[in-house]
Amino acid sequence: MMNSNKKWLYVLISVILGSLALSYAAVPLYKIYCQTTGYGGTTQTKSIISNIETPKEDIIHIRFESQIDNNIPIKFHASQKEVISRVGESTLVFYSVWNHSDKEVHGIATYNVTPNQTGKYFTKIQCFCFEEQRWKPNEQVEMPILFYIDPEIRQDPSTQDIKEITLSYTLYEIQDEDEE
Known about the structure:
Largest sheet: 5 strands, mixed
CATH class of the largest domain: Mainly Beta
Strand order of the largest sheet: 1-7-9-5-3
Oligomer: single chain
CATH topology of the largest domain: Ctag/Cox11 (Pfam 04442)
CATH architecture of the largest domain: Sandwich
Helix content: 10-25%
Structural class: alpha+beta
Order of helices and strands: HEEEEEEEEEE
CATH superfamily of the largest domain: Ctag/Cox11
Number of helices: 1
C-alpha cells in the first residue's frame, strides 16, 4: 500500500513540475511560433537581405501606431506617422519614448502588423520589441526599427495587391524584480 502511494506522489509531483515548466516556456515558444509562421500579423525576423530584385514602382505605405498601458508614465509615439517603403528595400524608422516621471521606468513592447496576412512578409532586421527597456527619470530615447517587405508578398494571392500596412506597438510597464 505504501509503495503505491509513493508512486502516485511521484506522478503528481512530476505533473505539477511539468505544468510549471510548460507555463514558463509558453511565452517564448509562442513568440518563436508566431515569428516563424507570421501568425496573427507577427513579423518575420532576419539578419540580412540578399539579392532582392523588385520594380522601382512597387511601393507600400507603412503606417505606424503606438499605444501605452494605462498607468505607464511615459509618452510613446512613432517619429513618423507613415513612410513609403519600396518592396525589398530596408527602411529605418524610430519610435520615441519620453519618461516624464521622476522615477526609472521599465517597459516592454509588443507589436502587430495589419492586415494580418502581411505579417509573414514584414521582416524586421532590428527592433526593440520583446526586450526589456529602461528609461531614467525625464529621459527621452529614440528606438530604431529596421525592416523590409519581402518581395514574396507579390507572389501570394492574398497579399499581392496590398498597398498599405500598419505596424502597431503597445508598450507595457514591467515591474523591476528588485522592487517586488
